[in-house]
Amino acid sequence: MDEAEIYSRLTQIFNDVFDEDDIHVTPQLSAKDVDGWDSLTHIRLIMTVEKAFKVRFSTAEIGKLENVGSLVGLIKART
Amino acid sequence: MDSASIQFLAFGLAAALASNLSRSVVWRSLVLMVASVAFLVLLAQRPVVLLPLGGFLLLGYLGLVMMQRGLHRLLVSSILAVVFAYIWLKKYTFLPDGIFLHSPYFTLGLSYIFFRVLHLLIDAGEGHERRVGIGGYLLYTLNFTTFLSGPIQRYDEFARDQFAEQPIGLGPRMIGLQAERIVRGFFKVNVLGTLFHAFQEDALAQLFQPLPPSQLLSAAIRLAVVYPLFLYCNFSGYIDIVIALARLMRLNLPENFNRPFSAASFLDFWNRWHMTLSGWLKTYVYNPLSIALMRRISSVGMQPLIGVFCFFVTFFLIGIWHGRTSEFVFFGILQGSGVSINKLWQIGLTRAIGRKGYQSLAKNPLYAASSRGLTYAWFSFTLFWFWADWTQIRGVFAALTGPQWSGVWLTVWIGAAVVLASWESLRAALLSIKTSSGPVLTNRYSRVIFASALGLAAFCITGLLNQPAPGIVYKAF
What we know:
- The structure holds 2 protein chains of 2 kinds.
- Chain A is built from 4 helices and no strands.
- Chain A is mostly helical.
- Chain A is globular, with a radius of gyration of 11 Å.
- The mean pLDDT of chain A is 89.
- The two termini of chain B are 17 Å apart.
- At the A-B interface, helix 2 and helix 3 of A face helix 5, helix 12 and helix 13 of B.
C-alpha cells in the first residue's frame, strides 16, 4: 500500500473519530494540533486504524507514537 | 551520596570527566559501569545487603532472555514473578509479615529498576526485535544518574546515546547549560527545599499547640500550601542535577517536569509532574487496559466510562507505587478519584455545552485560573497521605473543625488561583521583553547572571544554615 493511499484513508478515519470534516492529515500532525485528541480518543483512533488496515500494534509502538508520520511508518511496516 | 549533596556532585562530575577521556563506546560504557557499581557500593556500604537486589535483577534478566528466545507464552508468568518479587522485597503491608526477609537489605532504586525491567520484559514478550545483552541490561538498570529517583528512561533512548559510535556533542555552550542546570537544581534542593521544609515543620508543630483559631487556620493554610512547593523543589532539583550530569556523560535523559503548577486540570497536572512515571503507566497500563476493554465492550456510549475506569486504575497504581502502606493505598484512591472526576466533568460539560463550547470555556482566563487553583488545592490535599501516617493525619484534621477545614481548602483554592494566574501573567510579560535574539530573560547574559547569583546565594545560605538539606523524598520509593 503506498503512502498516498494510507494518508487518504487516515484522513477519513481522523474525520470520523474526531467528528470533523476538515482535518488535514500531515506527517507532523499530532495531539496538540487537534482539539479533542486526548488519551481516550487516541485509543479509539488506534483501534479504528488497526481495524481499517487489519494490523495490530504492540504496547511499546502505541506508546511511542509522536505524530501521524510515525503512525504511517508503522502501518507501512505492517502492510 | 543519596542526596543532592556536594559529594554527589563531585562524584558525578568526576564520572563525567572520566567518561569524556575517550569517545569510544567501550570506554564510556566501562566508566558508566564502574561509576554505577561504585555508587551502589557507597550507598549500600556492605555488599551482602545487595544480594536481594542482585536476585531481582537476575530474575528480570532470566525473564528477558526467555522472551528474547521466543518463549512469549511465559510473558504473563514472568511479569507476575517480577511484580511479586518487587512487592515482596518492598514489604507491602498487605502481605503476611512472616514471608519477608528480616535481615536488613538494600532497596534504594528498586522502584525505578522495577519499571525498567518490566518495560524490557513486556516489549520483548510482544516480539520487539531489540536484543539486550547482560552488559546493556546492567548499564541500563544500574545507571547511577537515574538510579535513585529516575527519570524513568526507556531502553532504546538509553542505548541510542550510550552505544552510539559517535556520541552526542558536548561543546562549551552545552557544558555551560549543564553547569547552569546543576546550580539551579542545587539551589532548589538545598535552599528552597530546605526553607519550604522548615515552613512545613513549623506549621505542623503549630497545629498541635493550643493556639487561637486564627493562628491554627493560618498554620493549616501554610501546611497545605507549602508541601507541594517543597516536594517540587526537592524532586525537580535533584532531577535537574542528574539530567545535567548525564548530559555531561553524553546521555540525554527525558524531562520529568514541565511547569506542573501551570496545569489547568488534574489530568493535565499528571502530564507535567513526574512525566516519565505517568508516561510509563500510560503506555503499559492505561493504553493496553483501555484497548482490552474496548475490544470486549463494543458500545460506543460506554467508551468514555471505560476511559474513566482505566484512568482510575492507572492513577491508583501510581499512588500505591509510592508506598507500601495503607496511607498510600488511600493516596492512590485519591489520585484515581481526582483524575476520574476530572474526566467525568470534562465529558459531562462537553455533552452539556458541546465540544466547541467546552474548548471556549477552557480558554476563559477566569475558568483556567479557577481550574489551576483547584488542581493545586486537590494535589495538596492528597499529599497529606503522602507525607503523613494515619496518626498524624488524624491529629492534623482534629486541630480544626469541619467548617474551618472547608475554609482552609477554599482559601488554598482561591489563593492558588490568584497567585498562579498572576505568575502566569508575570512570566508572559517578562518573556515578551525581547531583542532580536529572543527574550531578554533567557538570553545567555541573563542566564549567566542568574546562575551566578543562584550559585552564590546557595553557597552562602547553605553555609549559614549549616545543616544538610532534607533527603530526596523520591529516593524512598
